[in-house]
Amino acid sequence: MRIGLIGTGRIGSFHAAALARHPEAGSLLLADSDPARAARLADRLGATAAPSVEQVFTWGVDAVVVASSTDGHAELVVRAIRGGLPVFCEKPVAPDLNRTLSVLREVSALGGLLQVGYMRRFDAGYLTARELVRSGALGRLHTVRTMTADPAPPAADYLATSGGLYRDCMVHDFDMVRWVTGHEVVEVYAAGSDAGPPQFRQTGDVDTAAAVLTLDDGTLVTSTGTRCNGAGYDVRMELAGERDQVSAGLDDRTPIASTEPNGPPPASKPWTGFLERFGPAYEAELNAFVHLVRGAGENPCDGREALAALRVAEACELSRRERRRVRLEELPDLPER
Fold this sequence. Notes:
The chain has helices spanning 10-21, 35-45, 54-58, 73-82, 97-110, 124-135, 156-162, 165-181, 198-203, 274-293, 303-322, and strands at 2-6, 27-31, 48-49, 63-66, 87-90, 114-117, 141-149, 185-193, 208-215, 220-226, 234-241, 245-248, 326-327. By secondary structure, it is an alpha/beta fold. Residues 1-118 form the Gfo/Idh/MocA-like oxidoreductase N-terminal domain.
């Protein structure tokens, strides 16, 4: 198997290294808008560097991994699908909902294979939480709490094209709400604050946000996110049921300190970022893609699954802007299968 990987920045380099180690992945063709960067990574991994992205589609590959900047995802996914190639695409598929719908309609019309990168589906803690909820061990869920807290804001030029805190960051929480509970979000009410660093106000984004989500069975969910958590990288999901409650993401590296006299000690080595925290999960999702291309597994996150999380994020952004409750039925969607 020959895999073409487009985009050799931070996440692309991580994916390339994982594929280079994979016993079933075969050879690797790397491409980037900066050919020199692709060449340096290829030299380090023993892979082949293409002089441009074009060569990924003309030199012959069996599958494509899209890890480029967000604004290029849609075009690359469509081109791969039109060429009959299975695609793994880092989220998002496209920068906004309408363009995402356009891409997914084409994927569906052509019968293409698209896996979208929502890595928390492969994290051990979230997997266990899902099993406990689905088995009934917690009883009827009444409350779910999620949080994603980045240790420091990204650069201003990244913010300008990120899609905003809900779409770029908290969309992972929204995916987990659906995937862990097995229920759909039907209504949201969201708010945000840009009181932090000035680049958020300059780009029309917020540095901190909160949302209340209502699920189709009446379960209430609170989701919070921030780009300014100086204590470290903190991602958690708490699920409270009538019988028991559990937390995914709570361990000896969680960057939070107890104020109780007999509370647990603060983390001596808090998580510093998403690649460190979710490294094994990122590797596992690429492993799943290789198996999928070989016809040896189910798609763990197809375009419709990714779309469902994005629609929640879009509803939150609409709610924040218009200061009102938003029902998911207000947003466009793909027709049911």
